[in-house]
Hints:
The protein has helices at about 5-20, 20-30, 45-50, 55-80, 80-95, 110-120, 120-140, 140-155, 175-190, 200-210. The protein is mostly helical. The chain has one domain (about 5-210). The chain starts with a helix and ends with a helix.
Amino acid sequence: MTSAPLIISMIGLGYLIGSIPSAYIMMRLWKRQDLRKLGTGNVTSTAVIIHGGMLPGILSILGELLKTGLCLYVAHLWVGELWAYLVILVAAGVGQMWSIWLGGAGGQGQTIFGFGFLLLCPVPFALAALFFLVPCFITGRVRPANQVFHLAIPVMFLLAGLFNPSPLGLGQHSWGYALAGAASCGLFFIKYRPEADDVLQAQAWATNGR
């Protein structure tokens, strides 16, 4: 049964789990440096790879995947309904973007949203991913491809209302995926700034360093 206390609890717990700064922790453990004071100041796994190396970056990504899996598992145990999976996933993304443990700093939530949607609606997510891969391949530019990808997410997720096979048995037919996708898209554009994009900055540094 859906109730206000249950929804609030799901949002709160999702936010707290998502706000655990795995990238920040890994950089502290590996390099004893504060990601907020390096490069663009983004607390992301991409930033860990750029400033700390591939191994700590991969461990940071694994931490993000673990957080996502934990959120979905909690939603399964507590409720087991689609709305709970989507609510806790969006809340976790918000927590990763604006972590209470980092004074509101954070990343862009893309790993959490990406892995979560890949488990919940893999086929619509794969179709949406094409809107990143194809423009990126044609133009060689990450920024516009990433923007097109996020705009395509809620549109492609409308397909989940009709067609949504999932190897893990989590696939359900619902228009709720499109709402969650629209939320992730909106949060991305609120948070995203080209000057704070780690990939773009890394490319610029490499070019200027030649």
